[in-house]
Amino acid sequence: MFSDVGGLEILTLIVMAIIIFGPDKLPKLIQDTMGFIRKVRSFADSAKEDIRSELGPEFKDFEFEDLHPKTFVRKQLMGGQDDPLGFKDMKDSLDIRSVLDDKPAAPVTGRTGGVGFEKAAAASSGPPLQPGERPPFDPDAT
């Protein structure tokens, strides 16, 4: 929420607070604000505990963060597993750093039984390129 507020903005707010409220009233204002925040937190904690006690013992491990839509969908559709659909293997095989470093990517060995990188390269037309040789350029294809 406040991740985009920099040091200069905070310093400006402090200077403005000192100018507006004065150095005499500022400590009392900070103390009152902190007391209000503590009361709101204690109210929220007691409300959470009341809800947990009303739900019963079968919901003792219930967390309110689980009600966030993203977390709820992840737990309900994917069973709470880290990678039930195998996307981690696919993500690891598509390493962008190897493309940027001009190094060949790791071969894709998926569980789907599809054609791997080696078989697809062998099936392409034309002789294999020599090390350091640039691939042919087709201006009509680009």
UniProtKB/TrEMBL annotation:
Task: Report the principal subcellular site.
Answer: membrane
Q: What parts of the sequence cross the membrane?
A: 6-22
Cite the InterPro entries for this sequence.
TatA/B/E (IPR003369)
The question of whether Glycoprotein is a record keyword is answered with no
Q: Cite the Pfam families for this sequence.
A: TatA_B_E
Q: Which branch of life, at top level? A: Bacteria
Asked if the keyword Transport belongs to this entry, the reply reads yes
Q: Where in the cell is it found?
A: Membrane
Keywords, sorted A to Z = Membrane, Protein transport, Translocation, Transmembrane, Transmembrane helix, Transport
As for membrane topology, the entry says: Single-pass membrane protein
Q: Where is this region: Disordered?
A: 103-142
The protein's name in its UniProt record:
Sec-independent protein translocase subunit TatB
